Amino acid sequence: MAKWTPKHEAPEPLEGPVVATITGGTIIWFVLFVVQLPFYGWFADHGHTWWVWTCLAGGGLGLIGIWYVRRRDAAIRWAAAPPEPDGSGPGSAGPGSTGPGSTGPGSTGPGASGPGVVSR
């Protein structure tokens, strides 16, 4: 077999209303779960109870997805924000920083944490 080599560059990732999309999908999973609950007996008689529990699992995983994409969106917005006039914010060495590349409490260098991320 010949070694596979790409002939084209990878396309740019698609960006869109990610939070709204994940939220909409999560709502659909929970609605399907609630709609199927009155028919649980029929599903049990025919060996299809996994349909009901799949909808519940989809809704639960959707809640995790909503949490994840909201944090991702906040981190992207935080990183793209211009530095604050007082010297704090992304792209500037904030108070408590020991210089560029620092990972201290106020740093924004490599390895620094975004909003709501706890550094250890």
From TrEMBL:
InterPro entries xref list: DUF2530
Keyword Nucleotide-binding found: no
Highest rank taxon of the organism: Bacteria
Segments of this protein annotated with the region Disordered: 80-120
Keyword annotations of the record: Membrane, Transmembrane, Transmembrane helix
Gly residues bias locations: 88-114
Transmembrane stretches, start-end: 21-44, 50-69
Pfam entry (one): DUF2530
Residues forming coiled coils: none
Name of the protein described by the UniProt record: Integral membrane protein
Species, as recorded: Streptomyces zinciresistens K42
